[in-house]
Amino acid sequence: MKNEKAVVVFSGGQDSTTCLFWALDHFAEVETVTFNYNQRHSLEIDCAASIAEELGVKHTVLDMSLLNQLAPNALTRGDIEIEHKEGELPSTFVDGRNLLFLSFAAVLAKQVGARHIVTGVCETDFSGYPDCRDVFVKSLNVTLNLAMDYQFVIHTPLMWINKAETWKLADELGAFNFVREKTLTCYNGIIGDGCGECPACKLRAAGLAEYVAERKGAGA
Ligand SMILES: [Zn+2]
Q1: Of 23, 82, 137, 150, which is least surrounded by CB within 10 A?
Q2: How far is the CA of 192 from the centre of ligand 1 (A)?
């Protein structure tokens, strides 16, 4: 795949930034695409743009504000609290969001001559998003190939690994400090280790602590 081109679905968060480093390691040419759907913090778009610039990859921002119209939710509307009740979908859920993102990414990828699409979806920390499951991604891959008569390959380097293993992957790619210091996962818009209080920060911190402990144990 070294002589081919890939488009990375990129939010500026830990997962997609790790995927971006993975893509840079695997492909000759890499571009990024970020979806703007009136996230709580336009800082998320700014963060993605500055990471792309620093890594020297083209960054396209696509307007997906129609998602806000379709499915008002906690990420796009400040008046709805972010909450995640046990056994229920989180209030940040937008039906079909990943379906739409991957489909638009594919249209863009074909336009720029890229066959490969890289996305950070993950079934291990599965929080109930049906269109982040491996079976869905494989199904969509077939559908996209038929829809556009093109041989896309969707890559999901994080599909079967947990948060600690995602930190490990970043480390193996030489990107541990970069991902830790420059990515934005926090719902309160704080880059790096974040606010420490929101669900996204807690998940990220737990994975980081687990990986750092494991790395110490290994004597690294
Ligand atoms: Zn936070």
Answers
A1: 150
A2: 10
